[in-house]
Amino acid sequence: MIIDIFGAGAIGLLFYSKLVSHSSVATIHLWTRTSEQATLINQQGITAQTSTTDYNVEAQTYIPSKLHQACAIYDMTDNENKPKADYILVTVKQKDITADFVSYLKQRADHHTRIICLQNGVRTDVWWDSPWQVYAAITTEGAKRISPNEVSHTGIGKTVVGRVTNISSTRVVDQSKAIDKEEQLWIQLLLNELQKAGLDIVLSNNIDKDIYRKLVINAVINPLTAIWRIMNGELLVSKQRLAVMRQLYDEVIEVYEANGIEVSSLWWEDILAVCQATSNNTSSMLADVLQSKTTEIQWINGSIIKMGQDYHISTPTNDCVYHLIEAMNRQEDH
């Protein structure tokens, strides 16, 4: 079994380090954005920590360099000597899934390759060709990349995986119940390896709902933490902040209902629970802003705005945070 992980950010390093440490049957390749990160991992190994929510280290594991096979995504010179991957986990952000990125990924794929995509926001399925079996995945695992070869597991979560069959649609259509027995055996082999590595991962019968639940959580927490420059838990400290959160949430739910998306009355409580459980975490959008990187606002709140426009639903609070974050993104152009 050959598993490739494309992306060596927090989630990519977390999944990779766990698989390398625990899998006895799989060959795992890590594809990094830079050759410098790949060289560092191959020469010095990876340090993986388990931390509490306040980042006190509970356990630390060193994974020696001899176990690693890291390569830069944009340097496929050695690819011809490597057998094609059975599974590819795509852990880069939505903004990094470009035509160039997919062209390199295709060099590692064959007709039998299963592609599992872990991204925030509404997915960009148009990149994936029909011969591949494509899965969407949502994870609540907490991870923080400390350095290019150090990762901290900051919170134990759950990962759900579901089949994507309508490649041409901008909406994910879940038909995981219709997966035939042979296909279910194929994907279960990967899930078994991830479970043996200590990750709670299951095949979802309603990945569509899982994706849109995660989207509403991100649409509320990410932009506000980025704008106010606060940790997740600080969203809960005042009535004023909660009021803005609720405005974003109510707009998203109205858009979902107009689009015929199944919603749950528990999602507001889920958002509050996530803020509490990850109270000392820096959201991914805040991390991007602090590092002057382009954020995922286009695929999170931007997706909500577009879905609202399709049904003539106004989303003023989402519009506001979208333009504020986009103005921060533009700092990169100067």
TrEMBL record:
Q: Which GO terms describe its biological process?
A: pantothenate biosynthetic process
Residues forming the Ketopantoate reductase C-terminal domain are 206-328
The protein's annotated pathway: Cofactor biosynthesis; (R)-pantothenate biosynthesis; (R)-pantoate from 3-methyl-2-oxobutanoate: step 2/2
Instruction: Report the Gene3D superfamilies cross-referenced here.
Output: N-(1-d-carboxylethyl)-l-norvaline Dehydrogenase, domain 2, NAD(P)-binding Rossmann-like Domain
Give the Enzyme Commission number: 1.1.1.169
A GO CC term attached to the entry: cytoplasm
- Alphabetic keyword roster: NADP, Oxidoreductase, Pantothenate biosynthesis
**A Pfam short name:** ApbA_C
Q: Which GO terms describe its molecular function?
A: 2-dehydropantoate 2-reductase activity; NADP binding
Q: Into which EC class is this enzyme placed?
A: oxidoreductase
> Could you tell me which residue ranges the Ketopantoate reductase N-terminal domain spans?
5-164
Q: Which SUPFAM superfamilies match?
A: 6-phosphogluconate dehydrogenase C-terminal domain-like, NAD(P)-binding Rossmann-fold domains
Catalytic reactions on record: (R)-pantoate + NADP(+) = 2-dehydropantoate + NADPH + H(+)
UniProt keyword Oxidoreductase present: yes
Similarity comment text for this entry: Belongs to the ketopantoate reductase family.
Q: What is this protein called?
A: 2-dehydropantoate 2-reductase
Task: Tell me what organism the protein belongs to.
Answer: Paenibacillus nuruki
